[in-house]
User: What shape does this take?
Amino acid sequence: MSDQAPKTLVAQGGGPTAVINQSLVGVVQEARRIWPGGAVYGARHGVRGIINEDFIDLSQETQASLERVAATPAAALGSTRDKPDAAYCAEIFKVLRAHEITQFFYIGGNDSSDTVRIVSERAQADGYALRCVHIPKTIDNDLVENDHTPGFASAARFVAQAFAGANLDNAALPGIYLGVVMGRHAGFLSAAAAAARSFPDDGPHLVYVPEKIFEMPQFLAEVKAVHARLGRCVIAVSEGIHDASGKSIAEQLASTVERDAHGNVQLSGSGALADLLCEQIKQQLGLKRVRGDTLGYLQRSFLGCVSEVDQREAREVGERAVQYAAHGGRDGSVAIKRIGDYQAGYALLPLTAVAGKTRVMEPHLLSAEGNDVAPAFLHYLRPLLGAPLSPVGRLQAPAVAKRLAKA
Amino acid sequence: MSDQAPKTLVAQGGGPTAVINQSLVGVVQEARRIWPGGAVYGARHGVRGIINEDFIDLSQETQASLERVAATPAAALGSTRDKPDAAYCAEIFKVLRAHEITQFFYIGGNDSSDTVRIVSERAQADGYALRCVHIPKTIDNDLVENDHTPGFASAARFVAQAFAGANLDNAALPGIYLGVVMGRHAGFLSAAAAAARSFPDDGPHLVYVPEKIFEMPQFLAEVKAVHARLGRCVIAVSEGIHDASGKSIAEQLASTVERDAHGNVQLSGSGALADLLCEQIKQQLGLKRVRGDTLGYLQRSFLGCVSEVDQREAREVGERAVQYAAHGGRDGSVAIKRIGDYQAGYALLPLTAVAGKTRVMEPHLLSAEGNDVAPAFLHYLRPLLGAPLSPVGRLQAPAVAKRLAKA
Assistant: This one.
């Protein structure tokens, strides 16, 4: 460590969430408290802001402003999809040294944790005293060794509220409703649609996740069976569903495929998957009133749909990260562990335990048939969603005797 | 009128909304209060439920159940897209006579008001004593002679919250974001996206409504200009935008077009329009990170996004309808009028004043350029949205001096 007052740098990476700013504010407030003579810098647009020395001095931010920012969705510092390689890291260090940064906090998903790992290893190799802590964030809930990740629960709440409403709409004007949910490899967010159900025949009646191979004939048979039973069908589908060869159904469709710096195919921001699946249902099953929605960016950014449990935990992982940096004695990734039913505990994992790895839904969270969640998933999800969803009512009045009995 | 106790029939038609059940419950509660010895029937799935004698006896519904139903989105009785012709009406009367119905309340949009008109005229022609009252409902806000319609404000609130979040997301990961909003002929709901702005450079930066002719070259030039100025652009587009010949841009795209019983092209339930416009921006402007969402059915059904002003007024139009039926002395359509700033007044319009007519945005509500709303629209909309949207914060901290000044 330098003899000078500690200098903290914080940045945000990857897709924004409803609560990533809670983690940012947790870092800023705790760093200002623990290192009162130090500085707290924020890099604008993630690692790109570091190599560009695009810093703002968060030591000069008011508490009032920080609290407003904490309650605001998306990433207040700006984000990036850049993934640093060795050369990129060399640029990062040049800047960190020049600014005498001693603590680096990066809030992001598994790609971002890999960035932190590379930076940490590079710092050690260069003999530069830098404490690096990764702070988890992802609506996909796909970080290994975490019970769940900040951002997931608020997005899950959005998905549940969306499907609860879509189910009611579909019951009023019966037909097929299909909603495509974010999730490339992990189906957690799509599975959250199941939390929309309260009455026994509520939708979604079918849930398809990337953990299961998607077979079109089986899908169509399952839709047909639900429609025959209920006269309607509500379906939740992950954008990442794929065939037995591993090729995503969305990718099979797209004439031109857009990839980000991590090599990921761009799945969101297009309604193509929903449209194709609806077309199949119309053509193969001859059903009418087939409607598809792609929930899109609203899932991670919608203003005013947030789990207060998620907010609280996102704030605390930021605070914990600073505590670990001050007292933990090593670099790492903050993780949320489940203690009891329900309490959140926190741990500092080695960066290599998390970085670049992808958690998917454990088999016991899915139904044996592969087209629904298991009760264990609902038990897992419920405490994360925060306040109960708005209660939903149904008319219970008895039928009136027919007098003409024409129909 | 029959010597017997009055018999009330209520039904819901057209697209569901977040508050149409408030109007239903307003009718039921007020009818039970005013005609205590009478019966209150509900027809399941609108006029189709009438010809099928598919009635439930709402006299036997508890207050607790009614209040739960009132707070539930979609249409608790079920809805329909059927539009009765003369033959259909003959069937309706056969059933109404057989059940000795004396009051008929139909909650719906301008298609439904036309149904009520036909039924009312038929009843008069047949000398059957039937009081018919249309109760307004539509997220499109397209009923003439109404300041606004129940259901619009809650959908508008959803659209505003969606664009507020999308704007923040777009600022964090800059690029182009385009959201397609419901609205076939009237742009009110798309215009509500403008209520998402709080900072001067907040999106949506461009708003396109069906009231203005959509020209692709002009659209692309406007997107390019905003992107050049801000490095990003958020765009709200009505699904009903059309070219100078009146042909909708969505319809130009669709290889096969689905029409409902009213001859309306099915515009919702597909992401095609957003995808086409994004493709144009990518190809013609060469911009990266172009993302399109279609807000879809969530706009009218999302659970837990509601304007309490809308809820209150939707309840009252139901209650007023019963009051008018009991004391108004003629058939008609209930309308909301604006009194002062802001109070809602109510009136009973002749059915012919509303039925089958479509209101569009008045010119003074739109900017002269035709790609935004005018301040008058924001003034008009704000009191309808209910509680203020969640406040949004931005970091205000000063920049840190560069030490390497590479970039």
Remarks:
- The CA atoms of residues 21 and 72 of chain B lie 7 Å apart.
- Chain B touches chain A through 92 residues (CB under 8 Å).
- The radius of gyration of chain B is 23 Å.
- DSSP finds 14 helices and eleven strands in chain B.
